[in-house]
């Protein structure tokens, strides 16, 4: 039998949120270990939009300056109707918006972590609580057993840690999104703006990353029982089929896309009431990122909000760690102070997440093209609850 390892803070999941949380803790002088089930750090989804609140968090992490060198600033947006051909300027919030390669963001976070922080090929099989210390006992598929004083689940929509906490499972929309990159070796002539073309059952958008690379995303209405193709060639064909009759530039963009970059995912969300009522802490265990608040891509806030989680969680833990250092270093004191830190983190995040998830939820209903009365009510709620469209992106997660 393998000997049990003892680690102060374990983060499950080596995606954006997991790496950002580890880096935020590192900036506060706190060591952690990231357990990633894959053999390499992955960056599926091609690109990711980071809004002003996300850049505020990246600045706190000390990686914003280098990441800015890899992308252009988005300066506006417009929607184009296939049926009428009309163009409508999109309401555009103030503040910095850029689209990054996910791989660049993952790399930027990982390279700033101390050597040995990330452990690859570590899939969590089970989590139990030590009844004496309230520490987590983590059993890995490779035979390792770890006792963690603090366990943070950043392991996405299908989170093992969220299951341990008893959180409600994510729900699915009848929508899927295909994402990819298209390279223009001689340069493209697109403006630095988000352009979305909207048809009957589908929508496609594009955002330039730099002068030669464009990130695009196509939203397709699909029955939940539909089989989703994973083969890049089939994804490309399926996307082209869904946007027949769209502008030639959009069709050509998909035709000449980098097939290796293509991916598809069903849109998932957590209902606002599940976030409002969910218990996000048990003992010294909590969650962050998509494991806590997955939402559809309608607001483009998934990555930015996960970065906020990392900053606030690290700050709350660091404040209580100082109190632990000046008190008796007993296990009961540690567990109590960590619990207080996690409760403070959850308190700071909950209503922010409820507001974002409510807006995402209502937007998802509107996209489904509901009856006129439902559409009218949703639009009224959106105007009443979210009249200030800049509030979300101007949110300040504070200093580390």
Could you characterize the architecture of this molecule?
- Helix content is 36%, strand content 24%.
- With 400 residues, it is an alpha/beta fold.
- It contains 12 helices and 17 strands.
- Strand 16 (281-282) and strand 17 form a beta hairpin.
- Strands 1, 2, 7, 8, 9, 10, 16 and 17 form an 8-stranded mixed sheet that branches.
- The radius of gyration is 22 Å and the shape is globular.
- The chain has 2 domains: 5-170 and 270-385, FAD/NAD(P)-binding domain; 172-269, D-Amino Acid Oxidase, Chain A, domain 2 (2-Layer Sandwich), CATH 3.30.9.30.
**Beta strand %:** 15-25%
Multimeric status of the protein: single chain
**Number of extended strands:** 17
Q: Largest sheet, if any?
A: 8 strands, mixed
Estimated structural class: alpha/beta
The domain count comes to 2
Determine Rg (CA atoms, Å).
Answer: 22 Å
CATH superfamily of the largest domain: FAD/NAD(P)-binding domain
Overall geometric form:
globular
């Amino acid at each position: 039998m393998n000997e049990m390892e003892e680690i102060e803070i374990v983060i499950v999941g080596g995606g954006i949120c997991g790496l950002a949380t580890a880096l935020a803790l590192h900036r506060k002088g706190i060591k952690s270990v990231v357990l990633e089930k894959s053999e390499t750090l992955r960056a599926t989804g091609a690109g990711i939009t980071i809004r002003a609140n996300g850049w505020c968090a990246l600045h706190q992490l000390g990686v914003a300056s280098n990441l800015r060198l890899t992308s252009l600033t988005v300066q506006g947006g417009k929607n184009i109707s296939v049926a009428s051909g009309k163009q409508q300027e999109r309401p555009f919030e103030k503040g910095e918006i850029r689209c990054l390669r996910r791989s660049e963001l993952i790399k930027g976070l990982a390279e700033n972590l101390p050597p040995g922080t990330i452990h690859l090929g570590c899939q969590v099989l089970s989590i139990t609580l030590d009844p004496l210390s309230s520490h987590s006992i983590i059993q890995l598929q490779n035979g390792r057993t770890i006792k963690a004083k603090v366990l943070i689940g950043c392991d996405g929509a299908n989170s093992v840690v969220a299951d341990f906490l008893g959180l409600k499972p994510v729900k699915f929309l009848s929508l899927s999104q295909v994402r990819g990159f298209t390279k223009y070796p001689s340069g493209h002539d697109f403006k630095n703006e988000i352009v979305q073309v909207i048809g009957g059952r589908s929508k496609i958008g594009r955002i330039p990353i730099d002068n030669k690379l464009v990130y695009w995303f196509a939203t397709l209405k699909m029955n939940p029982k539909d089989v989703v193709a994973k083969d890049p060639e089939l994804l490309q064909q399926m996307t082209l089929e869904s946007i027949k009759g769209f502008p030639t530039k959009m069709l050509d963009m998909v035709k000449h896309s980098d097939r290796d970059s293509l991916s598809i995912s069903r849109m998932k969300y957590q209902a606002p009431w599940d976030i409002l009522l969910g218990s996000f802490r048990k003992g010294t265990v909590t969650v962050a990122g998509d494991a806590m608040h997955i939402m559809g891509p309608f607001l483009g806030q998934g990555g930015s909000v996960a970065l906020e989680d990392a900053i606030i969680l690290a700050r709350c833990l660091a404040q209580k760690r100082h109190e632990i250092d000046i008190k008796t270093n007993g296990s009961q004191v540690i567990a109590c102070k960590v619990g207080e830190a996690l409760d403070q983190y959850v308190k700071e995040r909950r209503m922010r997440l409820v507001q974002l998830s409510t807006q995402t939820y209502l937007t998802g209903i509107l996209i489904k093209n509901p009856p006129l009365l439902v559409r009218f009510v949703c639009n009224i709620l959106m105007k009443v609850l979210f009249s200030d469209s800049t509030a979300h992106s101007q949110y300040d997660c504070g200093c580390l």
